[in-house]
Amino acid sequence: MNKKLLIIPIISALCASLISCGRADDNKSIKIAVMGNADNFNSDYKLGIEQAIEDLNSEYADTAFSFEYELYDDKNSYETGAVIIDRLSSDDSVTAVVAPNITELNRLAAYVFDENNKLFLIPYILNDSAYSGNFYNTVFSLTYSNTKIGRIMRGAAAKTPAKRWAACIDNSELSMSELHGFINSNSDDNIKLADCVSFESIEGSIEEKFRMWDTLGVEGIMLLSADERFDDFKIIKKRFPDAQFILNSSFDKSEIILKDAELMSLLNNVIQTAEFTGYPHDDKAEKEFKTAKEMFEKKHGKAFDLWYLHAYNMIRMIGDTAVRIDSTDPECIAKALHSDGYDGICESYEFNESGERTDYRTEYAIYADNGRCYMMSLDE
Questions:
Q1: The dihedral of CA 100, 323, 69, 361: what is its sign?
Q2: What is the pTM of this model?
Q3: Which end of the chain, C or N, has fewer beta carbons within 10 A?
Q4: Residue 67 falls within a domain, yes or no?
Q5: What average pLDDT score do residues 18-31 get?
Q6: Is 367 in the same domain as 233?
Q7: By 3-state DSSP, what share of the chain in percent is helix, strand and coil, each rounded to 5?
């Protein structure tokens, strides 16, 4: 057999691969479609996106790359969002799509954009089941799984004097997965789940439930829901002022908290988990955080919310990776992210074969009486 004949197709295949992921286009435009409703964005989220686009265009001005984003308003509607997804999936001018804060819609979008080889980044919680048995090539979750967050809750609970806990949940997969993580953490910590009730079940019989918690000796209370329930928190906290509380990330709403003096007071010493962690964890991150903080305060006259850095890192991850591999091809960018991950400001991303985030920092927040948080780690 002629070995030269075997070598030629191998070389051809390698060349084709290199060309496809290192295209020498004169116009290397990266367009990012951001889905969502601007009126409902987390604090400073949009500012983080805008700053990242500005910095990318400035830093890579001497290259052929250019960067832009466009907001696609889904009006917080599944139906409107589905129409936008269908349109974007076939738009060749769009390199990447940023997900809206609609959990069930993102499950659909993950299938559609992966099928059409479009980068799809999800900065919000994506239900754990969306990854079960699915191997996405171009879908990336930038948050921790619900089960992992439940384990962090268990670890945080173990650091308090409270040993007998009650949980309030809704009918969402998110709350059930977090509860599953809490229960099945395999920890030898003497934590007991004394009761679990739905928010709906306590309506109309709330005092009856509270008396039962008194009887059961409940010392800690978890509120797990897909949406913030501050009204429910206020009622329960006032009835059990000495109990230790844990709230999930749905209560991470600084724009609401900082406008409500009563709520800020009630939140004192309450534990808050988050779907991502953006606080500095080493000297390098401390310097980067300080620089970003000072620049933001100079430009906007206020301190930033961590959603600013989360959004900033997300957009920079797309742009920096594209420039590094010299390609605007979504599949090539996805391959690079699967292989190398990305180091942002106070956030580093590593992904498994499905695009699920695998890096894991066991941090949580505790509220002070001014509505602000300070960070704790299970490793401390």
A1: positive
A2: 0.85
A3: N
A4: yes
A5: 67
A6: yes
A7: 45, 20, 35
